[in-house]
Amino acid sequence: MKVKTILVSQPQPKAENSPYFNLIDKQRVKIDFRPFIHVEGLDAKEIRKGKIDLKNYTAIILTSRNAVDHYFRVAEEMRFKVPDDMKYFCLSEAIAFYLQKYVVYRKRRIYVGKRTVEELSPMVKKHKDERFLFPTTDKVAPEITGVLDKLNINYQLATFYKTVISDLSDLADVSYDILVFFSPSGIDSLYHNFPEFKQNNTRIAVFGTSTLKAVEDRQLRADIVAPTPESPSMTMALEKYIIEANKR
Q1: How does strand 30-33 pair with strand 59-62?
Q2: Are residues 80 and 124 in the same domain?
Q3: Residue 218 DSSP label
Q4: Best CA proximity match to 176, nearest among 208, 136, 205
Q5: Which structural domain range is residue 142 located in?
Q6: Per residue in 79-108, pLDDT tens?
Q7: What's residue 210's pLDDT?
């Protein structure tokens, strides 16, 4: 079946040169963006209940832009001045560059992975004497903590924000050829909003092994999977599928 409409379960990209917009132009498909989940920050009082004292840590592990935003938000709420010699371990280059919103990038100790926690772990291991803080959501992927546990480092997992299901009731009578998911929480949101969801001819695209598992646990069919060596990004995986589907 041909692909004409796609729903991406994330906010619309702000960059004009986003690969999604290029995909719309090249393949002449309609792509809508709608967050299936959103995050809400925990206040400093809630975080202190977890016995988190920011001055006790010499390094931070950052796996998303949300983690960056909420770490510095909490630091401000706690009136904690982040030391200039703080070490930042970022899952990707995009997250590292995002730090420029809060710090002078060239004057900070920033270590960058390529995409996964496995790729970041050698740099973390080289600094195993640091005291690491891992600010994250209430639904952190177990494979991430699993890798950190194996490194035998001194780190503290801290929930700084929580994942909340968005209201999608206005989409009840809308259908798409492809639904795109990036986390298990997105699948949870789908069924929370539409308990009787049936996949039928809807294609499902997933990013990451944990998202794929969530789809399979629901007995759904994952038609498009990323990242792969051939399609390291979701847009590349979508384009490959669309070209094949639409030439029939």
Answers
A1: unpaired
A2: yes
A3: T
A4: 205
A5: 40-163
A6: 999 998 999 999 888 888 899 899 887 777
A7: 86
User: Residue 4 and residue 29: Cα distance in Å, rounded?
Assistant: 5
Same domain (yes/no): 155, 55? yes
SS3 call for 188: helix
Q: 65 and 151: one domain?
A: yes
Per-residue CA distances from 102 to 53, 113, 175, 193, 205 (Å) = 20, 20, 40, 36, 34
Whole-angstrom distance, CA of residue 22 vs CA of residue 20 = 5
Phi, psi of 25 (to 5 degrees): -70, -45
**At 104, phi and psi to the nearest 5?**
-80, 105
pLDDT of residue 151: 86
CA angle 131, 184, 159 (to 5 degrees): 30
Sequence-ordered strand ranges (E) for 23-153: 30-33, 37-41, 59-62, 87-90, 109-112, 131-137
The pTM is what? 0.73
User: What pLDDT shows up at residue 112?
Assistant: 87
Strand bridging mode 154-165 / 37-41:
antiparallel
* Nearest to 86, CA basis, from 58, 62, 63, 112: 58
Q: What's the half-sphere exposure (Cβ side, CA atoms, 13 Å) at 117?
A: 18
How many CB atoms lie under 10 A from the CB of residue 28?
Answer: 10
Task: Kindly state the helix (H) or strand (E) to which residue 175 belongs, with its residue range.
Answer: none
Q: Which residues contact 100 (CB under 8 A, 6 or more apart)?
A: none
User: Domain holding 101: CATH number?
Assistant: 3.40.50.10090
Residues 24 and 121 in one domain: no
Domain count, the chain: 2
In this predicted model, what pLDDT tens digit does every residue of 13-62 receive, in sequence order? 988 889 999 999 999 999 999 999 998 999 999 999 888 999 999 999 99
